[in-house]
Write a structure and sequence with these properties.
- It is a single chain.
- This protein is mostly helical.
- It is 47% helix and 0% strand.
- It contains four helices and no strands.
- α1 (3-15) crosses α2 (17-25).
- The mean pLDDT is 87.
Length: 77
């Protein structure tokens, strides 16, 4: 629920290959972080503009590359 929680998650993605692999197969790992629904949405949707607006360091946005891309084929979020 804060810039700190988002940045902690992104740092974990960048710095821990095992964690990154786990996130790719089980996105519910986000539930282990104190994030709002909007913050989780921004991460899942790779919404870098929203994350920057929340104060996330631009350097940490490379962590989004680790996250699975959203499935837009069903039209659901």
């Amino acid at each position: 629920m804060s810039q700190e929680a988002i940045e902690s998650f992104l740092r974990d993605l960048i710095g821990d290959r095992a964690f990154a692999a786990q996130v790719r197969t089980d996105p519910s790992v986000l539930n282990g972080y104190d994030l709002t629904l909007e913050e989780k949405r921004a991460l899942r949707e790779h919404d870098s503009d929203a994350l920057l607006g929340l104060g996330v360091s631009p350097e940490l946005l490379r962590g989004l590359d680790v996250l699975p891309l959203p499935d837009r084929s069903t039209g659901s979020r």
